[in-house]
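Consortium newsletter contribution from the modelling node. Members have asked for a concrete example of what our holo predictions look like. Here is one, prepared for the zinc ion complex that several groups have been discussing at recent meetings.
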Amino acid sequence: MSFEKKLNKNAGKIIQIGCISCSNETNHEILSSVELEGSEPIEPNFDIWWSQESQILQCKGCDSITFRQISSNSEDTEFNGRPRKHEELFPNRSEGRDPMDDEHLLPSSLHRIYMETISALNNKQPVLAGIGIRAIIETVTKDKDAQGNNLKQKIDGLVDQGSLTEDGSKTLHKLRVLGNESAHEVKAHEPKELNLAFDVVDHLLKAVYIIPHHASQTFK
Ligand SMILES: [Zn+2]
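And here is the predicted structure:
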């Protein structure tokens, strides 16, 4: 086994990543970096190699610090044969996901699933988060008494009764597939996909429960 270490090769460079405090992608400066590369013979004429770069980054907007690690190896490749790069950020970016405003106004059974699903998302349990998102949609359709024999028809039923827009239903159908995959194929979705899906869930719940509640209090 052999390996090589390069210090601060990328120090001073600016990259764009999602900031833990600013709520979007911002410029981050690489304060220091360590690059490790190594290879190991497996058979007389066959080596495998790996590489890992660790960086300490600072947001140019709010000064918060992030640790970033990018790793790859010769045994994990994309379709085109290039090595797949794995990026990890600490603190984890979905860790900070908060419940939406006024989430306590949700019906109690729904509130419980909602909070448990956020917890699954924040604790890096992507399979459970996917199942939770499906369960939230199931509960909304049941609660609003949307007609239909299966979840697809019930989502369309929410449109028929005016609880949901056509556009909202298109997104929900995508979520329905996402939930199906979690439950039946135990597919772990990427945190990015799940967070996007959860944005849509928040939007639906606001439209069905939170906004009508405020409207009924305001326009008496
Ligand atoms: Zn920032």
